[in-house]
Amino acid sequence: MKITLELPAELLNELMVLTGATSKSQLVRETLEEHIKLIKRKRLLTMKGSIDLENLL
After folding, report:
1. Comparing C-alpha atoms, which of 41, 15, 40, 10 is closest to residue 28?
2. What pLDDT score does 55 carry?
3. 3-state helix, strand, coil in the chain (%, to 5)
4. What InterPro entries does UniProt report for this protein, alphabetically (predicted)?
5. How far apart are CA 37 and CA 47, in angstroms?
6. Do the Cβ atoms of 21 and 30 come closer than 8 Å?
């Protein structure tokens, strides 16, 4: 999907250097994927101790 975004060039350039991304599309895709993983990890951590695995089976 094509989309037009206005993003600060300094942020894009810094993130490209930090991640090693070779294109802006790759950078945005990888950044979105990592952010989704982070959100899912945080949600799992909030559930810690709330699931009884002993009685699951």
Report:
1. 15
2. 74
3. 60, 0, 40
4. VapB_antitoxin (IPR019239)
5. 16
6. yes
